[in-house]
Description:
5-stranded antiparallel sheet
Amino acid sequence: MDQIIIENLQIYAHHGVYREENEKGQNFYINAVLETDTRNAGTLDDLDLSTNYGEVCTFLNHYITGHIYKLIETVAEKTAEAVLLKFPRIRRIILEVRKPEAPIALPFESVSVKITRGWHKVYLSCGSNMGDRKAHLDGAVDALRVDEKCRVLRVSDWIETKPYGGVEQEDFLNGAIALETLYTPEMLLEKIHEIEYAHGRERKIHWGPRTLDLDIILYENCVMCTQELTIPHVDMHNRCFVLEPLMHIAPYERHPLTGQTVRQMYEAVSRREENR
Length: 276
C-alpha cells in the first residue's frame, strides 16, 4: 500500500492528567503515515483521486484542539478513528502523538504513543428460521449499514436451507455479508450479538431455532481462538449453508489455515453431501 507521510505537525492543545495541562496547554507533535492507493492520482495528476494531506493536517489540528483528554493514548485512539471515518480513501493510519513538554521531573526529549488502526475485510454468515425470516436478515444488514464503523460491501441472495445439527426445526433462510470494519474481532462479536438480541435471539438450544444468527466466518487473515471466538469459523468448511452464499460474493477468498478457496470448500462439501 502506498503511503502519505506527515511529520512533526505542531498542535497546541490541552490534554493531560493534571489540571494545569488542561488549562495552560502545551505543544504536541503528530506523525502520521496514511496508507492509501495513490496510483490513479499520480498517473492522472488529479488531487480528487488522492487524499489531500493539507486537509488531513487541518482536520488533525481541529480535532486535537477541539477535545480534551487525560491520556495521549486516548488522543491517539480517538484521532486515528476520526481520520479513518473522515477520509474514505485512507485504508490504514499509523499515528504517533508526541508530548515533549510532559510533566516529567527528569531530563528527557519526548514521550509518545504510536498506534496502527485501519479498515478490516470481514465475512459474516447470517441465518433465521423463526418469524419473518427475511425481515430479520434484512434488519441485520440495515443495522450494519447505519453503524459508521462498518461498511457493507456485498450481500448474497438469501437461500433456503435445511437445519444443521440434528435438532428438529423449521428450514432456515441463510446468506452472507461482506463488510469492512474498524472493529476488532472481539468488538465486532459484541456488535453482532447486539443485533441478534435486538431481533429477539435467545440462546437456549445448541443448534436450535433462532430469529437471527450472525457468525464471523473470516476476518482478513486473522487466526485466533478464545473461549468466546474462533476465527476462521471452526466448522465453516463443513457447512454448505455457509459456503454456498459466501461463494456467491467471495468465491476466491482463502481459508487462512488450509489455503483453500471458498469455491473449493463448497465443492468438496457438496460432493460429500451427494455421496451421503
